[in-house]
Design brief:
heterodimer; A: 165 residues; mainly alpha; B: 264 residues; Phage tail protein beta-alpha-beta fold; 3 domains; two-stranded antiparallel ribbon; 6 helices
């Protein structure tokens, strides 16, 4: 179980994030799904591909939650290309995104701050500079350094493929 | 592994929040919710860099309907983890292989180096056979290193195993943290007085050092990465846990921690 967590937790969170853009809610959903799997296994049910099972339950639960909130699942386009990409693509995408998330975690703090202020919060370089008390040029350097590190990180970090059985 | 695309990065950056999606925290939460006691063994600190272990591996799986046929698994360029039909996990080091008969998946033959996390089944002991050695267990975690034909070593990280020669099944009992070696021609394995916690570093994804002289640290790293080092002060001592992922990072961490210079 712990192994399953270690290999799949973050990719599953990223997968769920495409449906529900709230990290806290997403973590709850993924926990529930691991619990559901665990209970099935405790009952002695055989689940051949546990990872596929997790992805499936995460998706179903996300859609359930959205439906309960009265959101038409057909209008999910902004967060997901639901129904267009297949499961394998979705899993691969989630793994890529999980690696990127990890790579962002690993950035030097100043780099990360500059990158996030600019790309996530939509600040202009000038505003980032004011916010961080550094020059615009330094902001530019920090961001290009961050992007370079992310690219290197994404090449260097690859992952196990498990559960071929 | 393919390069990521900008849309992936945009998505991640848009939602990124520091400290979210922490796998270790999630496992703690899960364990607490289900009353599972955390396992006593050391855990990987930099998990996601630890996960980063390997991709291009050739896996051959010859399956046959016949119960007598062998199922064979091989790890080529990279470490590979597989789940056996009985639920046991096996991690194969690069260049290692494992096979079992369809009718008896708890009796396996192996070459090279493998780490086993055996699913408990009191009625069916789990057996590992290598060219010269034999290991029997009920439910446990251990590693068998049979890379060199003349020496086989077994390291147990959890539980209890019997380690013997392939001819004579009267061997030694090993429990948590114990390691024993069997050399060619011996009638039974010998238990090491100072087991090497880093013998399963490749599986765990970390090196663990506790007040270890730099000289030994570098010996360990040079065996693992197959490179040699020169350092300015070999007598300093190091404690800590390091991801096996990035040698250069380990070197720079050691350099700054001990204020020494290390040259590859």
């Amino acid at each position: 179980m712990e192994e399953l967590f270690r290999y799949n937790y973050r990719p599953l969170c990223l997968f769920a994030l495409h449906y529900i853009p709230d990290p806290d809610e997403v973590e709850d959903v993924v926990q529930e799904c691991f619990t559901a799997l665990w209970e099935k296994l405790e009952e002695g049910k055989a689940i051949a591909n546990r990872r596929a099972y997790l992805y499936m339950t995460v998706r179903n639960r996300c859609l359930d939650r959205l439906r309960k909130k009265g959101i038409e699942t057909e209008s999910l386009k902004p967060y997901d290309t639901y129904g267009i990409i297949d499961d394998d693509d979705a899993q691969e995408r989630s793994q890529t995104e999980a690696r990127l998330w990890t790579a962002v975690d690993a950035l030097p703090p100043k780099c990360r701050q500059a990158l996030l202020l600019s790309k996530r919060d939509g600040l202009k370089y000038e505003e980032v500079a004011r916010e961080m008390g550094i020059s615009e040029n330094t902001v530019r350097n920090q961001i290009s350094k961050a992007l370079k590190l992310l690219k290197e990180g994404a090449v260097k970090i690859y992952s196990f493929i498990i559960g071929l059985f | 592994m393919s390069q990521f695309e900008d849309r992936h990065l945009d998505f991640v950056l848009k939602h990124y929040q520091e400290g979210k999606f922490d796998t270790t925290e999630a496992i703690d939460r899960f364990n607490k919710a289900h009353g599972i006691m955390p396992k006593p063994r050391r855990r990987i600190i930099y998990f996601f860099s630890g996960v980063a272990a390997a991709v291009l591996l050739g896996v051959f799986l010859f399956h046959s309907a016949s119960q007598n046929r062998w199922t064979e698994l091989e790890a080529h360029a990279a470490v590979r983890t597989v789940v056996l039909p009985d639920g046991s996990d096996v991690t194969l080091a690069p260049g290692s292989s494992l096979r079992y008969r369809v009718r008896s998946p708890r009796i396996v033959e192996m070459t090279g180096k493998a780490f086993f996390d055996v699913a408990r089944d009191e009625s069916a002991p789990f057996e590992v056979h290598s060219e010269s050695a034999f290991v029997r267990v009920l439910g446990t975690e251990f590693m068998v290193d049979a890379i060199r034909p003349e020496v086989t070593s077994v390291y147990v990280s959890e539980g209890k195993v019997l380690f013997a020669t392939s001819k004579d099944q009267d061997g030694v009992m090993l429990t948590e943290g114990m390691e024993a070696v069997l050399e060619h021609g011996w009638t039974r394995p010998e238990i090491l007085e100072e087991p090497d916690v880093n013998s399963i570093a490749w599986h765990r994804g970390t090196f663990v050092f506790e007040d270890t002289p730099l000289k030994e640290v570098l010996t360990c790293l040079s065996q693992y990465y197959n490179v040699s080092f020169v350092a300015s002060d070999l007598d300093k001592r190091l404690s800590g846990e390091f991801s096996t992922e990035d040698l250069d990072l380990i070197i720079s961490l050691i350099e700054s921690a001990l204020d020494v210079t290390i040259v590859k």
